[in-house]
Write a structure and sequence with these properties.
Elements: E1 2-4, E2 9-11, H1 17-33, H2 40-53, E3 58-59, H3 63-66, H4 71-74, E4 80-85, E5 90-97, H5 106-112, E6 117-120, H6 123-135
Parallel strand pairs: 5-6
Antiparallel strand pairs: 1-2, 3-4, 4-5
Length: 137
């Protein structure tokens, strides 16, 4: 077993480096912000994996970025910013993921007041919204 970061969490050493690194990211993200399985962190991972499988272009700022110094400049940014190319311009979909009882922070509300932000609370709703976004002409 190999120690991961200073959290005393171990990853199986037989995993390839990239798999260990991804495992480290998932574990430390959840560990640092106290997310349990089935909550927002898991929903974010599901959505991100689905977008990658569909080869959809998007931006996602990792949760750990919010806990570092750059957080001052990105507070309130939605979980996913998804792009769709049109003939002469691009369209953008802004999505914030929340648990069934989760609420927007003050920074998220301020950011949302300037955008058409969609708040999604389950994976099925996320897939439905993204599919609808790409079906619209």
């Amino acid at each position: 077993m190999q120690k991961i970061d200073d959290l005393n969490i171990e990853a199986p050493s037989e995993l390839k480096f990239s798999k260990r690194k991804q495992l480290w990211r998932n574990i430390t993200d959840d560990y640092r912000i106290g997310i349990k399985q089935g909550q927002e962190g898991e929903l974010q991972r599901q959505c991100q994996e689905w977008l990658n499988e569909q080869d959809i272009k998007y931006i996602r700022i990792p949760d750990e970025a919010y806990r570092r110094k750059i957080s001052r400049t990105i507070k309130g940014v939605p979980d996913f910013i998804i792009f769709k190319r049109k003939e002469k311009y691009n369209q953008t979909l802004f999505i914030e993921l929340k648990t069934m009882t989760g609420h927007l922070t003050q920074a998220q509300r301020a950011f949302a007041s300037r955008l058409n932000l969609h708040i999604i609370r389950c994976f099925e709703s996320f897939v439905e919204l993204v599919n609808k976004f790409f079906e619209e002409g």
